[in-house]
Amino acid sequence: MQHSDEIPRIIPIFPLRDQVVFPYMVFPLFVGIEAMPVVEEAMSGSQVVGLFFCARAGETCRFENFAPVGTACRITQVFRLPEGGAKVMVEGLKRVRLGRAVQRVPFVIAQVEPLEEPVERSLVAEALVQSVNAMLKLALAHGRPLPGDVMQMVDRIEDPGRLADLVTVYLSVPPAVQQRILEIMQPLERLKDVYLLLSSEVQKQQVRGEIQTEVSKRIGKTQKEFLLREQMKQIQEELGDEDPRQSELNDFRRRIDRAGMPEHVRKIADKELQRLERINSASPEYTVSRTYLEYLCTVPWSRGTEDQLDINRAEQILDEDHFDLKDVKDRILEYLAVRSLRKQGKGPILCFVGPPGVGKTSLGRSIARALGRKFIRIALGGMKDEAEIRGHRRTYIGALPGRIIQEICRAESNNPVFMLDEVDKIGQDFRGDPASALLEVLDPEQNNSFHDHYLDVAFDLSHVMFITTANVLDPIPGALRDRMEMIRLPGYSDEEKEQIAFRYLIPKQIEENGLGEQPITFESAAVRRIVNEYTREAGVRNLERQIAAVCRKLAREITQGRKRREVVTADLVAELLGPRKFFSEVAGEQDRVGVATGLAWTETGGDILFVEASQVPGKKELTLTGSLGGVMQESARTALSFVRAHARDFDINPALFENTDLHIHVPAGSIPKDGPSAGVTIALAVISLLTGRPARRQVAMTGELTLTGRILPIGGVKEKVLAAHRAGVRTVLLPERNRAHVEDLSAQVRKDMELRFVATMDEVAAAALLPVAGRFRRPGEMGDPYTPAAGPHA
């Protein structure tokens, strides 16, 4: 062995592209014409050349691309080839470290530093050498042949470093791995790495042999196709190609890595993928398992949108999209304010309650836009199957996750604004109770671990902002109602509808009906006429339909070449929409004895109703008609008992009741009616009948009456007052304890109407009954029936 001093410190450098040369090994190098100057430079001097691996194979190898450690080799023979170039035999001398470049062009000459290897003589080294020898023989037994002289060399070598270098040369490993072995200076560590590489090679040979053995066992007359497929798989494996099934499995592995699953979900996904690998692709179980994995990878476990917590911007967006609704907007801005101060807090479940057409669903879209979140909406109306919420178990054919998980997957976000529309119209039958299934979804204390039957793993719904809508609260189960914060949207006054029409509805319908390039203008009187004569609703849905009808008719005139009308007047509205559909039920009517005007609350907003009373000879019987519910019938009996007990207070002869039957009727008998707030109206109709004093038609009232004459507060004040305003009523009698509730009314409504607050029936009778013809008014009674009501009073 040559001493390190025999290696010159400055030698020419030759790049190796696809192999690595080790010390003490003899290698043939095929040198092209362009690299012959390196060989000639070495031969003219010490015949020593440095062989260094160049990682940039296929490109011009620069000095910076050389590996830091190479092998100094002696050129022993040079065989020049006829076509140019030469075959050069080199003998590895010693590992050297690359130093400073002395010359770079036309070839590299550089300084090198010989590296000394420590001598390893220990029991561990001997044992490891023996293990490598045994593993080599095992590789030979599995069909990995080595030249006979190489095996003799292996048996004689006791130095672990030299043995590691020799085995590495004959292992099928990439040049980069060979270079890594070359750079390990500790012989024992180097041999350990080689032992691991050799073990891996033996395992591959064992698996390959087992597959071939298994394939050979299955050979038969009817299994030729199977044999060909197995051989094709082996060929694809050798070529590095993947069959479609394997490609799909690898795609699932990549998707599972990118899905950001929680640890407990990741374990289930990995286990399901291992199960999928073992299932035959023709089996039905393969499709079931594959679909389940597809959903696990699709669920946005950790993907969400970032909230836009700019309160001023959110307020601007809400004002742009919706007119009025101050309470709703304030609540949303409060939610944003809390979120900006505590980003990880649990959000409330808002429930928008109100009649159709007041903007409940569109409010959800505006909230999503203000927050910068994605918007999801599902309609719960008519839903009867609990599996629609929780999903089906995977044991059923065609099983799918519930609508909650499905929509979140489509949104690709774990924190959308999720609107559950019409929560008051959920059904219930033998398939379960969807309302009960919603309890976990809508409970902020539980939905951080929502379990869908299909996924069968916990999903965190606490980041989702749930919003529900309902027309009425009564059908909603109490437990579900308790989990939601109610926000009422009572409806709009005529003035508010006019503002909404000009700000939102008219521009939208002009654009949707193709009039954007030929815009038309609506006069205020035209919109007012549509509101008063062609719609009767709390919301604005029918108002939008009527505006759309006007726009459609104008669009038809334009396409038929008629004279274009640019301004929509009140007269043009009547011409286009035909005769008016609604009339004021109060204005212009006569004040009559025994007929009182009441107020009612319905799912579509407030409404007015008339209570009629008449008397016929009889035996003190009471007849009630008009599809009255049980509560309203009790209110009628209470009112009659009160009148009989206080007959003298109202100048009624008690003897009238002895031989008289009373009949109380509420018109529109086909419409069911119920509720306690008609007690005052029924009592006034009876008092008007028995005293002969007409009841003012333009005075409407509401309130629950007790036997002692007290008037108790009622609900739906705003809806009822707005209904009275739409019907032309100018005076409304409300219970004294409802005084605070009129603050929700707009200033315009309070200006147009006289709101009086009463505590007893005496006050109601004084305000609503006219004197008998020819009789002077009592102090405090209102003016004659043909004199307009007094000025505004709230």
Automatic annotation (TrEMBL):
Q: Which residues form the active site?
A: S677, K720
Quote the record's binding site residues for ATP: G354, P355, P356, G357, V358, G359, K360, T361
Supply one GO molecular-function term.
serine-type endopeptidase activity
Which class of enzymes does this protein belong to? hydrolase
Q: Does the keyword Zinc apply?
A: no
The record places domain Lon N-terminal at 11-202
Please write the reaction equations for the catalytic activity of this protein.
Hydrolysis of proteins in presence of ATP
Q: What does this protein do?
A: ATP-dependent serine protease that mediates the selective degradation of mutant and abnormal proteins as well as certain short-lived regulatory proteins. Required for cellular homeostasis and for survival from DNA damage and developmental changes induced by stress. Degrades polypeptides processively to yield small peptide fragments that are 5 to 10 amino acids long. Binds to DNA in a double-stranded, site-specific manner.
Provide the protein name: Lon protease
